[in-house]
């Protein structure tokens, strides 16, 4: 875990120099494989998903299980809302806030009660799902694409949980909190970018 801070710093530089959103384009080619790779290509989604896992690992049972289940389920609800173009607050701002807030919760080691943690994660999942739901009708294989996307999202949660559990000692926990702080700072950058778009 000693190398996590330099790794996060390197990732931050790469993120700042590349587009923030995985959902910046229009139209989606392919099916399952394309859907699986999509969350891995956008830093905002990737960082939010890993943060959900990190926060769940920190909060322990039952949230270590509830948060990674809540997010994909509510993301599907958001995707359906996006497919039907239902009214929603500015989506890119909501996604940027998810990176900022979830990273901040990890950095602050915020021990939210179950209802609050689930509500925060569910709300942000709606924004992430909505953004991708707007693109989904143009996919060549919407079912395959959606399945791949949800599985990749779950995998990113598991990565966050694994990192959080591996850091279950003092120095490791500090490194994870520093990583959460770096994620929150990137959330601020995403927010500025989204507000200016």
From TrEMBL:
Pfam entry (one): HupE_UreJ
Keyword annotations from UniProtKB, A to Z: Membrane, Signal, Transmembrane, Transmembrane helix
Domain of life: Bacteria
This protein's record includes keyword Transferase: no
Transmembrane segments: 40-58, 65-85, 91-109, 114-131, 143-167, 174-195
Tagged with keyword Signal: yes
First and last residue of the signal peptide: 1-24
Protein name: HupE/UreJ family protein
């Amino acid at each position: 875990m000693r190398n996590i801070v330099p790794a996060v710093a390197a990732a931050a530089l790469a993120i700042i120099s590349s587009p923030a959103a995985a959902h910046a384009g229009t139209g989606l080619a392919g099916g399952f494989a394309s859907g699986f790779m999509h969350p891995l290509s956008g830093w905002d989604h990737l960082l939010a998903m890993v943060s959900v896992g990190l926060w769940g690992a920190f909060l322990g049972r039952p949230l270590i299980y509830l948060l990674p289940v809540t997010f994909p389920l509510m993301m599907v609800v958001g995707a359906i809302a996006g497919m039907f173009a239902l009214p929603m607050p500015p989506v890119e701002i909501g996604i940027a806030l998810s990176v900022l807030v979830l990273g901040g919760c990890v950095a602050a080691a915020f021990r939210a009660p179950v209802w609050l943690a689930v509500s925060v994660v569910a709300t942000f999942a709606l924004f992430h799902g909505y953004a991708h739901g707007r693109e989904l009708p143009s996919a060549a294989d919407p079912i395959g694409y959606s399945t791949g996307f949800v599985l990749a999202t779950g995998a990113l949660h598991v990565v966050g949980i694994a990192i959080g559990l591996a850091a279950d000692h003092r120095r490791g926990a500090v490194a994870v909190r520093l990583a959460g702080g770096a994620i929150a700072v990137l959330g601020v950058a995403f927010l500025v970018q989204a507000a200016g778009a």
